[in-house]
Amino acid sequence: MSGPVRCLDSRTGLLALLTLGFGCPSEPEPVPAEPADLFTAEGWARVTDESVDLFADMRPDDAVCDDAGWFVDPFRRTFEVETDLCNYITAGQDTLVAIAPGDTVTVYGIHDVLTADAPAQGYLGLALDGQLVWELSVDIPADAADFEETFTLDHAVPVGTEAQFHVHNHGPNTWELVAVTVTPAS
Questions:
Q1: pLDDT beyond 80 at 12
Q2: Which of 3.10.180.10, 3.30.70.20, 3.40.50.300, 2.60.120.260 would CATH assign to domain 36-183?
Q3: 126 Cβ contact partners less than 8 Å away, ≥ 6 residues apart
Q4: Where are the domains of the chain?
Q5: What is the pTM of this model?
Q6: How many angstroms separate the CA atoms of 131 and 155, rounded?
Q7: How far apart are CA 43 and CA 30, in angstroms?
Q8: Stretch 99-112: mean pLDDT, rounded?
Q9: Average pLDDT, the chain
């Protein structure tokens, strides 16, 4: 018999194993999809032009945002907003990886104890290519908490797509965007 053994079915493979001393290669084990970062903490830049701020209709009359109120936490490498100095911010950056239909996007974050003079809500939102794709409202007052929110996109988003992340609330609170990751559909 000359040439490679072709594995057509289990009988052929067994025959080859018995007559030639080797068998068919096994099917490779599926590799679990690894999440990839959609953004970096350092990549966020404040959107100051209201005409391109996708969240501008949410801007309260008393909105203030001192640049000292948003920064990259040097220890945790997170995008942090201190709402006593910046109670309304939209920040933008371009996506670092592509998203295919069916991919899972996960938003990870934390907030410290949330306080305000009167009951209120904190709001976070994420828009991709001008479309709101995720939002979270948290009642204030609230204990410190982590959040992990997952959603699936039904359309493709190429690398370099404009994204906007938004935070607003009343009261002196701290919000941190830890990461936004994309896990390919299996």
A1: no
A2: 2.60.120.260
A3: 107, 132, 133, 134, 135, 163, 164, 165, 166, 180
A4: 1-30, 36-183
A5: 0.82
A6: 11
A7: 33
A8: 97
A9: 88
